[in-house]
């Protein structure tokens, strides 16, 4: 008897796309990291060679830059990336409490340890109403942006 209940293949985290169909500002997996494509150049090779695509991307969670070269006809993994805005309700013990459009609350996201995190804490402590942008991809979720709730 095998129990396959808790198995995660990770297959649904990405989908294949032909390298030549990728576009600047799109997303791609570079060195197993979900990246936003910031630069893309295509070079043609000799008589029977394949055109090669040189990709430069920035990791959507760490901001680290990655590069890769791939034949234009080959497939590359593209991460499913979801961007969502939440209303900030509270900041407690390094975690943000966020409210969805339907009123549901989530308290499972850490306050970023960057300048963004300090900015969020300062503005929240000053009583500002804030919307936080959360990016989700390949099993990770992180607060990546902040804006006033503009009511």
Write the layout of secondary structure elements.
Blueprint: E1 14-18, E2 27-30, E3 33-43, E4 52-59, E5 65-71, E6 75-79, E7 81-92, E8 95-99, E9 105-110, H1 115-125, E10 130-137, E11 140-148
Antiparallel strand pairs: 1-6, 2-3, 3-4, 4-5, 7-8, 7-10, 8-9, 10-11
How would you briefly describe this protein structure?
Its main location: cytoplasm. With 151 residues, the chain is mainly beta. Helices cover 7% and strands 53% of the residues.
The residue fraction in helices comes out at under 10%
- Radius of gyration in whole Å, from Cα? 19 Å
Order of helices and strands, N to C? Answer: EEEEEEEEEHEE
What's the number of domains? 2
Structural class: mainly beta
Give the overall form.
elongated
CATH T-level fold name of the largest domain: OB fold (Dihydrolipoamide Acetyltransferase, E2P)
Mean pLDDT: 88
Which CATH top level class of the largest domain fits?
A: Mainly Beta
Domain Translation initiation factor 5A C-terminal: 80-147
Main location: cytoplasm
GO cellular component, one term: endoplasmic reticulum membrane
Organism: Tetraodon nigroviridis (Spotted green pufferfish)
Would you mind describing this structure in some detail?
There is one protein chain. The chain has 151 residues and is mainly beta. The protein is 7% helix and 53% strand. It has one helix at residues 115-125; strands at residues 14-18, 27-30, 33-43, 52-59, 65-71, 75-79, 81-92, 95-99, 105-110, 130-137, 140-148. Mean pLDDT is 88; it is low at 3-8. It is found in: Cytoplasm; Endoplasmic reticulum membrane.
């Amino acid at each position: 008897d095998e129990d396959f209940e808790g198995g995660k293949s990770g297959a649904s985290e990405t989908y294949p796309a032909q390298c030549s169909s990728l576009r600047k500002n799109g997303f791609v997996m570079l060195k197993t990291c979900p990246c936003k494509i910031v630069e893309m150049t295509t070079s043609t090779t000799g008589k029977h060679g394949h055109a090669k695509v040189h990709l430069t991307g920035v990791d959507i969670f760490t901001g680290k830059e990655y590069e890769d070269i791939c034949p234009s006809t080959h497939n590359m993994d593209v991460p499913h990336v979801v961007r969502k805005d939440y209303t900030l309700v509270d900041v407690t013990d390094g975690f943000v409490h966020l409210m969805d459009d339907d009123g549901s609350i989530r308290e499972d996201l850490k306050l970023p340890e960057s300048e963004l995190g300090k900015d969020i804490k300062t503005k929240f402590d000053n009583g500002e109403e804030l919307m936080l942008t959360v990016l989700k991809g390949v099993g990770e979720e992180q607060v990546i942006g902040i804006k006033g709730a503009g009511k």
